[in-house]
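Good morning,

Attaching, inline, the backbone tokens for the sequence recovery test we're adding to the shared suite. The designed sequence is right after.
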């Protein structure tokens, strides 16, 4: 569950366009048929005001009351607190000229990053007190930044921060989950930083051979639906079921290391919800240890 409480809901500004201001002061817009939208103006005009910029109050107990209530109504579930974002995503959203500042004004930007890290750790504590067992970072770099930072720069500036966030989560007894869209090449770095579970909507972009290797080598868990970028869009029941079965055989293996995923927004994908039900049926019918141990299952590749 998310603790984000926007200052303003979506309001129509033209026949086909809506806008809203989020809790940070960023201006968003979306068009007809879009569920999320994108930021068109960051709240932080420049880094001269980085020390005085007013951040949301992540320490206020009232912020977590709806989350505590929702968790208490589902005591049989494993509860995940959805963090407001990653250090990179929040900073990039706030500052329009972020990529330039990253190279030209790194010291001031580090101050911004430090402040964001402190907020995220505060949010983790709030989730823990509300009853969460894990926290999740959703980093949709593809949506936020069309030209992501170089992997070497990410490793220098952001991997140590992710390590610190993972340590903070583990210190609270929380598991760290990370959703990543574009930077699948950084999955080994996420694992090295201490991420326990990686959520991927397009697992075939990385390749199931590599995911299986990482799962076996580092005992990391992957949380995936059938690939929404390719497989799901075919609408082909046989293909969709085959990939769902392969994910179970090669990433779960009747042991663990895999969470069967379900993409919540089939509308934005432009697909018939029934396509995903093929995968759901496959996951439910074959995602049982007694089935994996039966002669009916196909052996995974070694």
């Amino acid at each position: 569950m998310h603790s984000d409480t926007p200052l303003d809901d979506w309001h129509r500004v033209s026949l086909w366009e809506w806008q809203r201001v989020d809790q940070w002061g960023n201006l968003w817009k979306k068009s007809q048929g879009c569920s999320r939208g994108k930021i068109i103006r960051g709240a932080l005009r420049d880094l001269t005001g980085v020390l005085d910029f007013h951040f949301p109050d992540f320490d206020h107990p009232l912020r977590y009351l709806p989350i505590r209530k929702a968790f208490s109504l589902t005591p049989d579930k494993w509860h995940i607190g959805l963090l407001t974002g990653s250090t990179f995503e929040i900073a990039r959203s706030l500052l329009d000229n972020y990529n330039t500042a990253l190279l030209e004004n790194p010291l001031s930007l580090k101050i911004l990053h430090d402040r964001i890290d402190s907020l995220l750790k505060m949010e983790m504590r709030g989730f823990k007190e509300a009853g969460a067992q894990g926290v999740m970072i959703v980093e949709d770099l593809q949506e936020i930044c069309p030209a992501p930072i170089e992997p070497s720069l990410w490793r220098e500036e952001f991997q140590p921060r992710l390590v610190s966030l993972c340590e903070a989560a583990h210190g609270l007894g929380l598991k760290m989950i990370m959703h990543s869209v574009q930077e699948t090449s950084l999955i080994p770095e996420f694992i090295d930083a201490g991420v326990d579970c990686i959520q991927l909507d397009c697992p075939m972009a990385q390749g199931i051979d590599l995911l299986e290797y990482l799962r076996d080598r580092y005992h990391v868990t992957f949380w995936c639906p059938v690939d929404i970028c390719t497989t799901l869009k075919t609408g082909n029941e046989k293909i969709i079921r085959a990939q769902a079965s392969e994910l179970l055989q090669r990433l779960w293996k009747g042991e663990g290391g895999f969470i069967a995923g379900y993409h919540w927004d089939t509308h934005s994908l432009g697909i018939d919800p029934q396509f995903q039900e093929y995968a759901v049926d496959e996951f439910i019918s074959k995602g049982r240890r007694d089935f994996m141990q039966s002669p009916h299952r196909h052996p995974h590749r070694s």
